[in-house]
Amino acid sequence: MPTPDAGLLLRGGRLVTADADGPADILVRGGRIEAVGTDLTAPNAAVRDVRGKIVIPGPIDPHVHIAWPYHEARTADTFRSATEAAAWGGTTMVIDWAVQRGESLLDAVAARRAEADGAAILDYALHGTVTKVTATLRSELPRLHDAGVAVLKLYMTYRRRGIMADDGMLWYILNAARDLGYTVSVHAENPFIHEWNEAELRAAGITGAAAHGLHKPPIVEAEAIHRVIYLAREARCPLLIRHVSTAAGVDLIRRARAQGAEVTGETCPQYLYLTEEVFRRPDGYLYICSPPVRTDADRLALWQGLADGTLSVVGSDHAAFPRAAKVGATAFDVPNGLPGVETRVPLLYAGVRRGHLTPSRFVEVVSTAVARLYGLYPRKGAVLPGSDADLVIIDPEEQRALHASSLHMAVDWSPYEGMALRGYPVTVIAGGRIVVDGDAMADPRPAGRFVPCPRRAPSRAAPSLAASPAP
Ligand code: URP
Ligand code: ZN
Ligand code: ZN
What percent of the chain has pLDDT over 70? Predict the structure, then answer.
């Protein structure tokens, strides 16, 4: 294995970035990209022939829940095991949450860093989940960017878990975030509708896995997206809608963007590949996540939204609950979330094979747009001289089938069990280190660094809804 200082020359590959696709050699030295060009030479560097392979900037997963508590359950991984699994699947950086548990969000950031530093094998960043506007939180808001946090998350549901942001809190945070240069991201579901539906379903004795989808029909997501877009536009605050699952949600985002709103959308592989049919399976409870997976029409609308730029990024929403943790007296009590940090990139690359995305758009949604959203471009998400040497080599002819037994996440099941893929990440380079090479974990050292996210420039004025046609 070459040392970073001697350099590593990737020769003869097809470099696919968000805005280019063609042959290029790449020279890596000292953890950075040193040069990109054709017929590069570097006398002392190790040379790797990557003819026939695709080289892409390191994918970044903007939405993982590592070692995450959910009522009495906890996802089964650690920063070490989750970043190893991420690397096996062609991801070179993850972005996790620091969740405010009491008065302070900065304390949560420090606690999360203590868990990750010295454990993560890949670089990582954090966003901050605000669960309560306390006096401490108010005083901390102007200083969050000093701790490297530039994106906030609010839950518009989970009222009974005590972490819901009501409209007043949303409005306060959106206004503060605009002034302080943060982006606000939301889990958009209307709690009142799904809690009402839950009560009706319980009364009717309908509590199996299908009840999960039934109590959260598309209106639960669409109403919340509609409302938060309105609030964010009035507040002139950049907004990211997490895990969009419905055609209606895509439509609302498309219309708002067409009117100039700074709204971006994220979706996840489960919404692109799975449908509510899974709830009919005997193990349907395993597939419980929020929002729920939907219909084929929703799935195709999400692919279209990704292709046409309505949706900007793909996160995994990785939550590694093993089978034994995905239990509850009813569907409403089962911990929400699916494992996926390892399968996000292969599944999105399969979207290229299936004609949903161009190769460059694939790179954009798994890597470059994430880096831009978090203010990390061109250090991340790019293959340019000076960028971090985070690179993934995909063998477009590699045939793999997804099986829990051969994946590396801390779970004993996969939502995509048996799915055959042609094209898979085969070599993963993070910070110039070859981390995964073929079927070997080549460098499992916990050398991942915390990457602070800079706050963005003050928001450009978005048009007020009062002055625009109704969306
Ligand atoms: O069901 C999900 N998505 N679990 C993870 C937590 C969240 O809401 O993003
Ligand atoms: Zn969420
Ligand atoms: Zn999530």
Answer: 96
Angle CA 206–289–310, to nearest 5: 125
Convert the pLDDT of each residue in 365-396 to its tens digit: 999 999 999 999 999 999 999 999 999 999 99
b/e string for 115-130 if b means 16 or more Cβ within 10 A?
bbeebbbbbbbbbbbb
pTM summary value: 0.96
Pocket test for ligand 1, best of 65, 70, 155, 220 (most atoms within 8 A of CB): 65
DSSP-derived 3-state class of residue 54: strand
Domain count, the chain: 1
Residue 382 falls inside a structural domain: no
In angstroms, the CA 44 to CA 452 distance is 33
Q: Which atom of ligand 1 is found nearest the CA of 155?
A: 8
Question: The domain that contains 147 carries what CATH number?
Answer: 3.20.20.140
Burial readout 12-31 (b: 16 or more C-beta within 10 A, e: otherwise): bbbbbbbeeeeebbbbbbeb
Pocket lining for ligand 1, CB < 6 angstroms: 65, 187, 243, 289-290, 317, 319, 336-337
Residue 285 belongs to domain spanning: 60-373
Between 69 and 318, the more confident residue is: 318
Q: How far, in Å, CA of 310 to CA of 264, rounded?
A: 7
Nearest CA-CA partner of 321 in 413, 229, 238: 413
Residues 216-242 have a mean pLDDT of 98
Residues in the chain: 471
Q: Is residue 150 part of a domain?
A: yes
DSSP string, 193-243: HHHHHHHHHHHTT--SHHHHHHHS-HHHHHHHHHHHHHHHHHHT--EEE-S
Nearest atom in ligand 1 to the alpha carbon of residue 290 is 1
Name the pairing type of β-strands 21-29 and 32-37. Answer: antiparallel
332 lies in some domain: yes
Q: What pLDDT, on a 0 to 100 scale, did the predictor assign at position 73?
A: 84
User: Per-residue pLDDT tens for 48-76?
Assistant: 999 999 999 999 999 999 999 877 788 99
Q: Which of 332, 336, 344, 411 to mutate to test the pocket of ligand 1 (most atoms within 8 A of CB)?
A: 336
Cα–Cα distances in Å, from 29 out to 26, 329, 427, 450?
10, 55, 17, 21
- CA–CA dist 320, 339 (Å, integer): 5
Residue 336 lies in a domain: yes
- Please give the structure tokens belonging to residue 142: 């102007």
Helix (H) or strand (E) holding 202: helix 191-203
Taking the centre of ligand 3 as the mean of its atom positions, its distance from the CA of residue 296, in whole angstroms, is: 22
DSSP states along 103-149: S-SHHHHHHHHHHHTTT-SSEEEEEEE-----HHHHHHGGGGGGGT-
